[in-house]
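User:
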Amino acid sequence: MNTETRNTLCFAAAAVVCTALAIAVNTGGVPAGQQDKNLGKPFYPDFDAVNDARELEVIVFTKGQSQPSKFRVVQDPTTRRYVIPTHHNYEADAKDRLAKTAASLNGIKRAYREPRNNLGTDSYHEKYGVLDPTEATSFSEGLGNRVTIRDGEGTALVDYIIGKKVETAGGEDTTDRYYVRNPEDDEVYIAECKMDLSAKFSDWIEKDLLNVQGDDITHLVIDRYSFDEQQGKVVDQQVNTLSRKDFSDKWKLQGLDDPTKEVDADKLRDLISSLDDLKIAGVRRKPERLNADFSVDLKGIDDQLALRAEIGNIQRSLFSRGFFPVQDRENDALKLYGNSGELHAATKQGVVYTLLFGEVFTGSELEIQIGEEDKSDGEKTDGEKTDGEKTDGEKTDDKAEDKKSDKDSTASGLSTHRYLLIRANFDKKYLAGEPTPPVPPKKPAGYDDAKKPTSATKAKPADKKAEKKKPADGDCGVQDPADKKADKKADKKADKKADKKADKKAAPQPKQKDIVGEYDAALAKYEADKTKYEADLKAFEKKIEDGQAEAEKLNQRFAAWYYVISDDNVAKLRLEKTSIITEKKPDGDASKAAPNSPPSIPGLNIPGLNPSATPKSAPKSAPKSAPKSAPKSAPKSAP
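Assistant: Predicted structure:
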């Protein structure tokens, strides 16, 4: 073989090697045929979204943050409830939400593979926004969102890094196509992703904090005060008590006696609406020994050092959030105050909500949700305590962590929020519809005697007075004139007596009172009312049980938490008296005609039909009357 032939063969071999290297670079070292066979296939063909999903984890990196945000929802294997470990294990309303999210990530298929075009792996991933966000310390651009769903054993069922949205030819991003890769695979694919995905805390919880209907609230006590930390007492206190019968009734302010003033219906409507729509922005866990009713349970701590340490932990946790326990001098009990007052709202179901307004602070969205944490994901491990639960001897200032100046807040766009403590209790006096027992009728005197049956007496036959006297023996039937005159006088007297008796009998007699019938009717009505009362009482007792159960259920929810709410809502709840009352509106224009007056009829002046017309005055002199007496003699009749 000559030199020229040898050189030609060497160049050909080198060309083949270079071509192979180029193909290897473009396909990540895997032959193109092997890569293409994955197109059209799901990333995770064996994933059963409905039956297997028990945990969701979303890791997101937001530009400007020093570390990524992690959000996790996990089903507790014991209680079967979902909690959010990244947010102090707050309970999530997640069963349906997790199922929808898992279903939206099920069956995602590789539609098209993006070529590398001689880019290195990191540059390739950065270009399409699919860098792993857990490596945010190494990169600041091109980081994607990592979404992982696991089963009950913690095994990953699906694991995606979802990058930029694919733009159309016109540069728009209106499609549902994203750049997607498996964290274990370097290749980037275009995939259709109609995701129902959220890492927002508020999207995974029951946002309605109080779970109350505004129309059910019938009593309010707005206890507006400030707490002087130096003096350890309440100052500038103003208490306003309001009530109404039901939602259709007007609010009434206790002590408002000015007839020209009334409660401002619009302000109260806004207050009730704010209570009805109070939303959770963030949570912090309370110390375990601080009970739902704000009392402290120190049972079981015998060691004095441990007892002082526990009391110190509780005090630091409360003080840093603007809540202050004060010993009541009268009953030696502890009463908890908020540094910005409190509100009590009672419903017609008898449930009373107590809201204590604590310290105001500003922060970023993550700081508002979970506070400043040493750990990036906000989770606590064994032996550690999270925000609000300090270890013995630890003296950190939570207020310094959370509270920032209003100036910094305005400059950086941070929002202002406030801590809130809530408790619920049941009070029967606010429960509507308590039945009143009926009063039995009083038996009238003489009822028993009147009720006894009387024996029938037979009427005696009347003597016949008109019987004629039989003539005595030897009498010829001729009556003596003197006897005849005496008989006539006796008959006349008897007739007069009979007529008088008949007239007396015919005269109307006063009606005797039927005490038996009236009492029996009243007794029957009482028995019917008693039966109804007993049924109403059972229904009312059921309302009591339901109200107590509702208060207990609410306390189970409130017991473990400091809540964070927008300070704008608090401003609507802490109304002053001057904001509550307004000038009373007039009932109507007195100059208008009375509503029952008949309409005016133009052209007529008839009293009673045209009230606006003024009746004419009576004539000065009346017409002459007819002659007082008739003529003395009538005219003679015609012959």
